[in-house]
Amino acid sequence: MTFFDFFKKEKSCRLLTHLEGPLVEKYRHFREFISLNRDTLSLMAELEQIHYGGALFNERKIRDKIEELLETTASLTETLNDASNN
Hints:
Layout: H1 9-18, H2 22-53, H3 59-83
């Protein structure tokens, strides 16, 4: 592998997933954080659509979405805490 090959996205992502060490661990936490953040924002958007969309909904559906949002947010917080070493 040449020096410039390292900076190609597909190669660098594959390389970082097979290495060990503190920087690689931070990278893994960061990727998990980004994924959980996307999930959290999607759930918030779904709740906004329910609220502003005017469609019929039931209380159970809202409770399920809020519980899922709380769980995702808790995981997001844990991941951020892990990445920053508390």
